[in-house]
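Reviewers of the previous submission asked for a worked example of the structure-prediction workflow described in the proposal, so we include one complete record here. The input consisted solely of the amino acid sequence. No template or homolog information was supplied to the procedure at any stage.
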Amino acid sequence: MTNNGKAIVLTDGKAGHENQSKAFARALGLDFQLVPVKFKSPFHKVLSYLFDALGIRTVGLLQGMEGLFASPPNHQTTKPPNYQTTKPPHHQTTKPPNYQTVIGTGSGTFYAAKSLARKIPGAKCGVVLYPRGYRLSTFDCILAPSFDNPAKLPNVIEIPANLVANDADFYERGVAAFRERYHGETGNLVGVIVGGPNKCSTMTAGWMKSQLDAIFAANKGAELVVTTSRRTPPDVESLVDSYPWAYKLIYSKDHFNPIPAFVQLAKRLYVTAESTGMLSEACTFGSAEVVALDNLRPGPHKFRRFVESLRRGGYVDGRRKIDLSAEFARAGKLMGL
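From that input alone, the workflow returned the following structure tokens.
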């Protein structure tokens, strides 16, 4: 469906956040315009929590980004939307966009999204991820991951994984591009997606060798394919490169993205557990069984909670796919769509 209104999607410049906002807008049937937003400094972000607690919404968003927010860079080519309710000139023959929805993902957009929505008559504000530290009741809709243990409130909708903005056309193009590079069989494809270490995970060549040895032993006769990422350590990449893959993408040598094809074609996908975006995509699209390769550090951190939540739902170590149609329908009602 497509609504008459159009969404303003605030972006903090992080691709993972921006893609989730796009996915939310598309799920609501809304066209959208991207508008960059950035706090002037970490101190100004801290101030936003205080201002929010006091009910202050003085940010002057998008018209120069005064207050807590920096002006867009000079090279910015996307003009911010004109959301002011001014009378159009007599020669204007087309109606301006009807912005009735503001969407943001991540802590860099939460305060801006709710503040801007209050400045547009009748507009609603929806955010993705959990706006911890802000007044939850003043968002119209919050799509919060289960691993954040969100509060049970009427405007909070729990979701099991990150939103993914891809669609059928995206995967069709991805498969076509992959087939131009790989001409082997795909009927028994098994994919491996290798990320890299972060504050809650490790990745060593020794650990990776144990995982790859087990994968090859468990999938004899399969067409084994692999991709590393920009976060994969060099020694791990060298190890991955040494195995007899039917197809391999070593990111330091080639930036092609075979993951859409892996998701669409594989019967089984192994994904390193810190790769929340890739796990979310693998658990949402395709038909593969998804296996998380556990490189997580001990402790009850959010990465561990994320993987365990997916496992309990049957999305990891199983073939069940995430269906958010009911959640999106509820979100649409909260957003007045």
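The longest helix spans residues 168-181. We consider this example representative of the routine output the project will generate in years two and three.
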